[in-house]
Amino acid sequence: MADITVELVSVERMLWSGTASIVTAETAEGEIGVLPGHEPMLGQLVDNGVVTFRPTDGDRRVAAVQGGFLSVTDEKVTVLADWAIWANEVDEKQATEDAQSDNELTRSQGEAALRALRRSREG
């Protein structure tokens, strides 16, 4: 099976680095799927988006992201997010409260966290 090196990085931390068979990300141009051999590109991540990938040695991973960029080169996919959290780290009650916040950033992060949680449950 072909694979591609993937890095998922937020401003606060490195979330994951390894190889995957596919990466999907929600960008300003729409949801993009990246397979090995994809043309090089640079995309802007949406403010309350979800990134998924299937590691070559494990189960599908899902993360909520807030802004940033997706960079695809011949050798690597880099997701550089302003903020990111794994779906399995989401506190659903807190995310639901955040999604109702008057603060735009908090609300957007809460919405992204809930979307990632729903996507992770899809299987």
Automatic annotation (TrEMBL):
Q: Which UniProt keywords apply?
A: ATP synthesis, Cell membrane, CF(1), Hydrogen ion transport, Ion transport, Membrane, Transport
Domain of life of the native organism: Bacteria
Q: Domain ATP synthase F1 complex delta/epsilon subunit N-terminal: where?
A: 5-83
Q: Which residues form a coiled coil?
A: none
Its subcellular locations are:
Cell membrane
InterPro entries assigned: ATP_synth_F1_dsu/esu, ATP_synth_F1_dsu/esu_N, ATPsynth_dsu/esu_N
Residue ranges of the TM segments: none
The UniProt entry lists membrane topology as: Peripheral membrane protein
Instruction: Give the matching HAMAP family.
Output: ATP_synth_epsil_bac (MF_00530)
Q: What does this protein do?
A: Produces ATP from ADP in the presence of a proton gradient across the membrane.
Q: What does the similarity note say?
A: Belongs to the ATPase epsilon chain family.
**What is said about its interaction partners and assembly?**
F-type ATPases have 2 components, CF(1) - the catalytic core - and CF(0) - the membrane proton channel. CF(1) has five subunits: alpha(3), beta(3), gamma(1), delta(1), epsilon(1). CF(0) has three main subunits: a, b and c.
What name is this protein filed under? ATP synthase epsilon chain
The organism encoding this protein is Corynebacterium massiliense DSM 45435
